[in-house]
Automatic annotation (TrEMBL):
Protein name: Tyrosine-type recombinase/integrase
InterPro entries: DNA_brk_join_enz, Integrase-like_cat_sf, Integrase_catalytic, Integrase_recombinase_N
Superkingdom, natural source: Bacteria
All residue ranges annotated as the Tyr recombinase domain in the record: 232-420
Keyword field contains DNA damage: no
Matching Pfam families: Phage_integrase
UniProt organism field: Flavobacterium jejuense
Keywords assigned by UniProt, alphabetized: DNA recombination, DNA-binding
Length: 420
């Protein structure tokens, strides 16, 4: 037994054994390494600046540009919106951290240009507040003050509603079609279809601006249907009512009398009358410069109106013709406020003559355009009458003029008794 054992040892080569063992172990190590390939990324981490809200909070991670290369910190952090509070930042960043981890695990490569994905801060989306402020700033530089104030008021009310309904500090992308439809339904129930449609139009204007500036991908508000409405129109005055009102104003309120005559004789809207400055009136050439939403237009001042205008030579050129209860004044108020003041002045007249809500300053424009049209149609063909009246009233198309004439019931035929 011993002899066979020692004989076995004599045949054993220690150096060969160790060489073979090391070779086997190395092969096994390579095999295991192949099974556990290096991850190309590090798990995303959250940086909270030790709770300091004055600093930027963000998610960051590392990635291997080359498969066998080292992990390198990806240069673009994903920042939480600065206006979020502590709880909101943590929730927002944890969501980003979780979703980014899934992306990376699925093979996402932030350096691959085909991914068309970026972590730039500008592309993370704006908050509702920031998006609305941006769009309103753009519109403020393109709209007349009256139009802008109406737009701003409706958008601020919508923003307040969003804040009260769980959207405070959320991104603009969270406001979808269903959210806006819900808001519009509340407006409809509380007020009217007209106000609901106007609100829809203003929100759509803001979302179009956001789409044009690539803050949102699509303005879906324009796909929300417009509701049919039965608009209330100012009625025209009868000849007797017109005569009584003019006689009363000429005697008791020269300022309001001339204001009404600019509406009547120059066929202006009340807000256009409020825009007139002393410099806009050229009595020598009988020309009136009217400011519009998009610029200005020139209108002829009829002699009938020139005879009513007081001496303006001593008034400042940049003062308003119709000031606060006097001619030629500077007036630090917006157009809407100035127009409303004159509507309030006219309330005294409405009470004096028992006029209903269907009558107002705008009724004078309807009344005198009706007069003009019915006079023209007796002397001209319908085409000639329309062309002539367009040059006076400022309507830009015959389609718009015809629609307006239908709405105010302008054409009244002569007595047709002999045909019956």
């Amino acid at each position: 037994m011993k002899i066979r054992f020692y004989a076995g040892l004599e045949q054993f080569n220690p150096a060969f054994f160790m060489s073979s063992l090391l070779k086997f172990l190395y092969i096994e190590h390579d095999f295991e390494h192949d099974l556990k390939k290096k991850k190309r990324y590090s798990e995303p981490k959250l940086y909270d600046a030790n709770g300091d809200l004055s600093k930027r909070w963000y998610v960051y991670f590392s990635f291997r540009k080359i498969i066998d290369g080292p992990l390198e910190r990806y240069p673009n952090n994903i920042y939480a919106p600065q206006h979020f509070d502590k709880k909101e930042r943590i929730e927002w960043l944890k969501t980003i951290q979780r979703n980014l981890s899934v992306l990376l695990k699925d093979g996402f490569n932030p350096y691959n240009p085909e991914n068309k994905f970026s972590f730039n801060e500008e592309q993370q989306g704006k908050s509702i507040q920031d998006a609305f402020e941006f769009a309103l700033t753009i519109k403020k530089n393109t709209l007349a003050l009256t139009s802008y104030k109406g737009l701003e008021g409706r958008i601020k009310r919508f923003e307040k509603w969003l804040n009260e309904n769980g959207f405070k500090n959320r991104l603009i992308d969270s406001v979808n079609k269903k959210v806006i439809t819900t808001y519009l339904n509340e407006i409809l129930i509380a007020t009217s279809a007209k106000n609901r449609n106007n609100t829809r139009a203003d929100i759509s204007t803001i979302f179009s601006t956001l789409e044009q500036n690539e803050i949102i991908t699509q303005n879906f508000v324009q796909n929300i249907p417009i509701l049919k409405t039965n608009p209330e129109k100012n009625k025209s005055y009868s000849s007797a009512e017109e005569s009584k009102i003019f006689t009363y104003l000429d005697k008791n309120n020269k300022l309001l009398s001339l204001y009404v005559k600019f509406i009547s004789y120059n066929f202006l809207r009340p807000v256009e009358v409020n825009r007139i400055t002393i410099a806009d009136i050229d009595l020598k050439d009988k020309i009136l410069k009217i400011k519009t939403k998009t610029g200005f237009q020139l209108k002829r001042i009829p002699q009938l109106l020139i005879d009513e205008i007081p001496d303006l030579s001593n008034y400042p050129k940049d003062a308003y013709l119709f000031g606060r209860k006097d001619f030629g004044q500077y007036w630090e108020a917006n157009e809407t406020s100035r127009r409303n003041d004159y509507s309030d002045y006219f309330l005294e007249v409405k009470k004096k003559f028992g006029l209903s809500k269907d009558y107002g300053l705008y009724s004078f424009r309807h009344t005198f355009i009706t007069k003009l049209y019915n006079t023209f149609i007796k002397e001209m063909t319908p085409e000639e009458a329309e062309s002539t009246i367009m040059s006076i009233t400022g309507h830009t198309t015959k389609t718009a003029l015809r629609k307006y004439l239908r709405e105010i019931n302008a054409y009244i035929p002569d007595d047709y008794s002999k045909y019956l």
